[in-house]
Design goal:
The complex is a heterodimer of chains A (182) and B (433). Chain A is mainly α and 182 residues long. Helices cover 72% and strands 0% of the residues of chain A. The longest helix of chain A has 23 residues. The C terminus of chain A is likely disordered. Chain B is of the alpha+beta class. Chain B is built from eleven helices and 16 strands. The radius of gyration of chain B is 26 Å and the shape is globular. The C terminus of chain B is likely disordered. Classes of the chains: A mainly alpha (182), B alpha+beta (433).
Chain lengths: 182, 433
């Protein structure tokens, strides 16, 4: 179904593209927001990716790879947006779905701690974490999206996790797994 | 102590809960915007999305995933404007263009003839005659759809394409200007599986896109290089001159590369460039006289003339010899400039890889009773010797003996002596490296 839509969009059918965009928009926006940490930047990056997708769709070689291609455009747009802004803003989103938890106070503490730690990562480190743990991509799939060899993607993911642990430690508290898993 | 899986699981929960939701209406506004925008043409940009090349500067958002290099007006030297000043043929009478054959090896001349023929066919000139004697002659009727400048371009461009590993911090010459000596070549034309050229729809003419498909070796070299030089600059050179200088914004792993730029109107057209790239370079040792002192070009054929009218050649014949092919045009030009003040007309330039006067007293064997000038034993400051030139003159037995040096700005010629040619071949001790 999606492949058929992609093929129609590749041949200039804007209605087909609109349907594809509708299906992808929320996740694109969420991914960009997690990487960039700010609504304005997220909207800029997500929109830039979709504008580029519409323009370059005729150049897509395999319609079945549309999702990976689209997220590659998004990651590139996020890099552009991160460069454009002097620094990546702190994560301060409001209005997300609350997490069902038996201890809302513990969850708020964990969230704030992770917010601060995640802010310390580079956009590329955030990107690999978001692709794997938010989008649910495998590491090989994420490697294609970020345009890196598999080995590079693996090491980047490893370093990102290590950086996150270090950032959590730098917050002066036990790392999150120690706190939550104890 | 918890393991890393706990952190990963917490990340899933955290990211899912913290992902922002888009504001209402944003997508609808975007779709209204894209509905009025054209799409890129399929044929030209098939490789663009995989290349990782990105737009430059402020134009990035609106432009492309490809590097855009502007040929500024006035930045393109005459050697990149081979058709400049050419008068289009106004009639359908046959036209003959004559190229001097700079070397005597028949195999090389025949190879050059075949390449020229491919280039003419690529331009749409399917019917022509070719002959090789003391010169190489092509006779054909110039179609109204083929600019004379394109014919001149394909017949006077060697077509040696190189991808250079540009050193960090070294300024890149303007497009069309010579590449300094000593720049490492990442790969050359032999590693390019295919090359296509076109005009991107979303850029104003005369914008061009060159799309290259590399073999595995070149793709690997480019992947390694771009990985280590993100933010740096690469240079694509044609015949030793900068053709394009894109910025590396990400690693290129696919081996498919597309580069676009907007050349000045007088530079190579898309049709001429694709003809040159698809045919491959002229054989080593062939030197195009256009690069030396003006191109023999398509002069108008007298109306009603039924017979071919050869075009006079306005330059000396050049033999590249052992000099690197990319240095030949500049070396010959420098040598001719060095003898410009002589009251003789140069008719031939023989280039070689050795230099005259490697030692102060070595010239006497070549030019009797002549010692080496003190200022040629060592190359000029900041340059390195790359070879020599011997210039022959019309109606004169004396020849000019010249040493050639190179620095980042180009090739310099130092006139050593003017005298009779040696009775035999140049002694290796005098001209060898």
């Amino acid at each position: 179904m999606q492949t058929e839509l992609v093929e129609r969009a590749m041949h200039g059918n804007h209605e087909a593209f609109a349907e594809l965009a509708n299906g992808a928009w929320a996740k694109l926006y969420g991914t960009a927001g997690l990487i960039l940490g700010e609504h304005g930047a997220a909207q800029e990056a997500a929109q830039a990716a979709l504008i580029r997708a519409w323009r370059d769709l005729p150049t897509l070689r395999r319609p079945a790879s549309f999702d990976a291609w689209l997220y590659r455009l998004l990651i590139n747009a996020c890099r552009d947006e991160a460069r454009r802004r002097a620094r990546v803003r702190e994560i301060r989103f409001e209005g997300q779905e609350p997490v069902a938890t038996a201890d809302p106070f513990a969850w708020l503490a964990e969230r704030d701690e992770l917010d601060r730690a995640f802010t310390r990562l580079t956009p590329d480190q955030r990107a690999i974490l978001v692709l794997v743990y938010y989008r649910g991509l495998t590491v090989p799939e994420a490697a294609k999206v970020i345009g890196a060899p598999l080995g590079t993607a693996k090491s980047r993911l490893h370093r990102a996790l290590e950086a996150l642990r270090a950032a959590l430690a730098a917050e002066g508290r036990p790392s999150i797994e120690q706190e939550m898993g104890a | 102590m918890s393991g890393p899986d706990d952190l990963e699981q917490r990340l899933v929960t955290y990211l899912t809960s913290r992902a922002p939701t888009p504001p209402a209406g944003a997508l609808e506004a975007l779709l209204r915007q894209t509905s009025g925008q054209p799409q890129r043409r399929r044929r030209l940009a098939a490789a663009v999305a995989d290349t990782g090349w990105r737009g430059l500067g402020a134009a990035a958002a609106a432009a492309a995933l490809i590097a855009v290099v502007a040929f500024g007006s006035g930045l393109v030297p005459s050697s990149f404007a081979p058709g400049a000043g050419v008068t289009p043929t106004p009639t359908l009478s046959p036209t003959t263009i004559v190229l001097p054959v700079p070397i005597r090896e028949k195999a090389i001349a025949a190879e050059a003839e075949a390449i020229f023929a491919d280039r003419l066919r690529a331009l749409g000139i399917g019917t022509f005659t070719a002959s090789i004697g003391n010169d190489l002659r092509f006779t054909f009727v110039l179609p109204a759809t083929v600019p004379a400048a394109d014919v001149d371009a394909v017949l006077h461009t060697a077509g040696q394409l190189e991808w250079l590993a540009w050193p960090d911090g070294l300024p890149v010459p303007d497009v069309g200007h010579p590449v300094p000596a000593g720049i490492p070549v990442l790969f050359d034309q032999s590693r390019i599986v295919s090359a296509t050229v076109g005009s991107p729809r979303n850029q104003a003419p005369p914008a061009l896109v060159v799309q290259l498909q590399l073999d595995a070796t070149a793709a690997s070299a480019l992947a390694d290089y771009t990985s280590a030089h993100i933010g740096g600059q690469d240079v694509l050179a044609l015949d030793g001159k900068v053709l394009a200088a894109p910025i590396i914004e990400s690693q290129i792993t696919s081996g498919d590369v597309a580069i676009s730029w907007a050349p000045a109107s007088a530079s190579l057209s898309a049709a001429a460039l694709v003809a040159i790239l698809q045919s491959g370079p002229l054989p080593a040792g062939w030197i195009t006289p256009c690069s030396v002192a003006g191109c023999p070009s398509l002069a108008p054929t007298p109306t009603g003339s039924a017979s071919p009218s050869p075009t006079p050649v306005a330059s000396a014949t050049v033999a590249c010899g052992g000099l690197a092919a990319v240095d030949c045009p500049g070396a010959a030009q420098a040598a001719l400039a060095a003898v410009a003040g002589q009251a003789m007309t140069p008719i031939r330039v023989d280039l070689g890889s050795g230099v005259f006067c490697p030692t102060p007293d070595s010239l006497d064997a070549l030019v009797p009773n002549t010692s080496c000038p003190s200022d040629v034993v060592a190359p000029p400051s900041g340059t390195s010797w790359i070879g020599h030139a011997v210039v022959s003159f019309d109606g004169a037995s004396d020849q000019a003996h010249i040493d050639l040096a190179k620095d980042p700005s180009g090739i310099k010629a130092v006139l050593v002596a003017i005298g009779p040619p040696p009775p035999g071949p140049y002694p290796a001790s005098s001209t060898g490296p």
